[in-house]
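Hi,

I'm pasting everything inline rather than attaching a file, because the server keeps stripping attachments. The sequence lines come first, and each chain or strand is labelled.
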Amino acid sequence: MANTLIFIAISITLLSLLISLYRFIAGPEKANRIIAFDVMSVSTIALIAFISVLNKRIIYLDVALIYGILGFIGVLIIARYIEKGL
Amino acid sequence: MSENNWNEIIGGFIAIGGSLFLLLGSIGLVRMPDAYNRIQAGTKASTLGTILSLTGIIFIFPDWFGKLLLLILFVLITNPVSSHVLARAAYYTKVPLTGITKVDKLKETLEVEESRKAHLKKVRIQKEEE
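And the predicted assembly:
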């Protein structure tokens, strides 16, 4: 039962990732693309946590944490790059 | 049904609610007219959606409480920071606002600061001439 509910949640999250991928591709400026990348990287944390529930492995949560840290640092660096240049 | 099973069902529904918030955030990301509105819609909704999803997983596996709490705190701290940096970069690179924007407080503040700096520079030049 719980696996079915988590599967539904995974499919809804994948749909939201696809919708924000549209903004990532079609965004008119650099800023819009980074906003879409930020939203996608935060959604992917939830997606990896769902996958860890399906496989019943706690080690995947560490993967989610590292992914979140790398996405956060990437967003910060790219935003500074747009603002002032490297 | 045992108690454990009910916990799993409640957690699954909370997780589905969180993923619905993620879906709403991405729909807002597509439909909003402006980069700043997109920052609002995307970041707030995705923060709440991720926190709700991880809370649902706490209901399913209570043993994983520590690491999930760490993830929740991480998302809660870093997401406003990244949205603030994004809005700042977007404003200073002059990404256009929508046509229906009426109040732009930051522009007024920047104009006041510019005029004050210009005034100070003029005063300093006058003193040096004397």
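Helices of chain A lie at 2-26, 30-55, 59-84.

If the labels don't parse on your end, tell me and I'll reformat.
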